[in-house]
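Here's what a typical entry looks like (CobW/HypB/UreG, nucleotide-binding domain-containing protein):
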Amino acid sequence: MTKATIPITVFTGFLGAGKTTVILSLLPKLPKDYKVVLLKNEYGDVEVDSKLAKESSLTAVSEILNGCMCCVLVGQMQNALFEIRDQYHPDRIIIECSGSAFPATLAFQIREMELNTGGDFKLDSIITVVDAENFAGYEDTSPTAKMQASYTDIILINKWESVSDRQLDTVLDHLHTLNDLTPKLRCDGRNGVDPNLIFGIESKLFLDKNVHNQDPSHIEEVETLTLYRGSAASQGHKHDDDHVHADQGLKHHDNHVHAHEHNGILGNRSPDSHQSIPLETLKESLSELSKESVWRVKGFVRVQGANVETFILNWAFGRYDLTQTDPSALTEDSSVRLTAMGERGELRRAIGSLCKTLELSIL
């Protein structure tokens, strides 16, 4: 019996472009018995998207945190792919890169795995998601964003409904300059895109290893901080060296390095961790964040509205969603745990007002 090759679709795109939303939108359009496993990589150590994804029809979800698997964590990516193959035998693996990742190294690694395993894996396509609202801004400051748009099989233009025709033309002009031949498809809001348009591409990218030398040092572009309210000792409670992701059984070794000292906005003063955040206070604080210096804020927060409820917060470039989740996402002695990502050297200053208003410390 001939073994089936597992196609791998790699999603890249700058922070907040909407990669996870696009990926999850594909699932309802696939056959009921089609098995998809998501391997997600993100900076920070808060497993936000796994919480969102476990409500979907994904067969399994795994997150590799605190580093980028297109460079320093390539070995972890390889091990995770082997585990996915052996445990789930999926019809497809989707890899969602960190927002600042250029996937050349990752693509070469997949091609090497294809050779070394006799064809167990194949690189099907690299898809870049572009945020039409903010691309013109971050393209100017991020060489990685330019690389992502230049080396890809398909560009998906997201959030284009929120910009004027003139702004959209500007984005398209920039994209055509970077990559004239690659197809550019508009996402249909939260309905995303037809999977038939992006699956089965049989990518020819990165066959030439000389392209690898163009990988930028993208890690220097993004600074990541953990914000919390509650006991500092509880801030690593969910991150054992070998743990289950998204309650779906897939394990791998995490590359967590927990700081033993924290520079808190409150110094040594610990706020009442059981006191939830008033909803209006949270909304006002988020509205004041600068999207020029702060690009993503994601994590968990206990909110006081009509009732005290725990939410997943997902903020990107001025937009945010609050999705109710299980209270166990936070420990009893913690009411906020967030990861903030933004411009290196400016992020700490830019989140100062948020930390002061919500009484957050920085780990």
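Confidence is low (pLDDT under 50) at residues 211-219, 237-273.

More examples are in the samples folder.
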